[in-house]
Amino acid sequence: MHNPLRSEADAFRWVVVIGIAAASVIALTLLTRPAVGVVWMALLIGFGVGFGYRAARGSLSQSVEVTRGGDGKFRLLVVANETVQGAELLGEIRDRCRDRKCEVMVVTPALAASRADHWASDIDEAIELARQRMELSLIEIRGLGLKAKGEIGDSDPNMAIEDALRVFPADEIVISTHPPERSRWLEHGVVDKARERIELPITHVVVDVSAVGTPS
Amino acid sequence: MESATVALEHGGHGHEEHHGPPEAHQSSRIDRQTLGILLFIVSEVMLFGAFFASYFFLRVVVDPPSWPPHPYELPVAVAGVNTAILVSSSFTIHYALEAIRRGNKAGLKLGLVLTWMLGLTFLFIQLNEYVHLGFSARDLGFGSIFYSLTGLHGAHVFVGLCLLTFASIRAFRGHFGPEEKDHLGVEVPGIYWHFVDVMWIVVFLTVYIL
Questions:
Q1: B187 interaction partners in chain A (CB closer than 8 Å)
Q2: Are B196 and B160 in contact (CB under 8 A)?
Q3: Distance from CA of A73 to the nearest CA of B (A)
Q4: ipTM
Q5: Alpha carbon distances (Å) from B155 to B123, B152, B159, B162
Q6: Which of B1, B15, B44, B197 best tests the A interface by mutation, with the highest count of A CBs <10 A?
Q7: CA-CA distance, B96 to B180, in Å (whole number)?
Q8: Is the pLDDT of residue B38 over 60?
Q9: Global confidence as pTM
Q10: Where on the phi/psi map is residue B174: left (φ > 0), alpha (ψ -120 to 50), or beta?
Q11: Which of A88, A132, B10, B59 could be A142's S-S partner, Cβ–Cβ 3.0 to 4.6 Å?
């Protein structure tokens, strides 16, 4: 879920929009009769609730603000959960960082077991599992001779990327998923949404954790 | 976002362990203070919702022959001017915040003082309206709900003015800076003030116009 009200600037925008809507209701009421104003207000409220719901669900197209480090370092943001230790992913990180002064940030979204767990904020176990995977992954990346840090992200991978970009001025993003037939992230269009919203090169890596030789 | 950060830096520091209690959850990097005021506003919306439910019950379910009941009348024009005053105060508080974001401390002070004065003017006009209305909270259900709703809002304006007073004093003492974390003392009252404005727009629409 996206919080559509995060700052005073957001609140001010709401005041302006509601003020304009109220002015139209007042004008219509004074020009016609109160019943017309009530109907118009009900329509506006319905439209507003629908818009707010879509915005909160993240269905509306929105761009993510991207900042650059500007210190000559190449920063790679890696987003993965169950596939975070995959050999394909590590290979991609190694290729991206080859012959570069590179810094890697691994974001591992904490995935709740069910929607009920998500709504009840019962995600302690999911956070712990994600943390364990991430720590092992960081050790592997460290083994490649790279500087790396990690963070547990929001259960919504796109939100986790957006959050990470606020503190990590990435140059490129790598998203790792299961193969298409088993990936919930791909089913929910995580990679497409990220490409649509973020003006950064995004690489999609498929990791088949069931394949021989891949760490589980 | 669950910000359980694990710092495993390669090089100089080696493995950096986190000690003490885990960090509180932060939702998508929102400041705790901002999240607090948002949750408070949610509870306030519910409070206003209860009063609006009473208002609509009296108006729609009891269904008096006329609204406001004869012979009472509401000063719509005065309330309209008062609405304009309060809505304009949202622009001045926003100006104050934009000013401090750019490091303009004089603009911050000007915006806060203007907002405070506009809020006080609103409250003064509302009290003046109460004096000249010609009915009290004891006169029918209409009087009760009118004074309850507008009085509840007036109380919120008063609280907002108190918050703005503290913010103004701190602004004149130079407590605020352009960094996001350095002007939360204005940001949080600003969000509250916008909420108070929006609630008045709703009160004005339902009580005075429709």
A1: 7-8
A2: yes
A3: 15
A4: 0.80
A5: 9, 5, 6, 11
A6: B1
A7: 14
A8: yes
A9: 0.67
A10: left
A11: B10
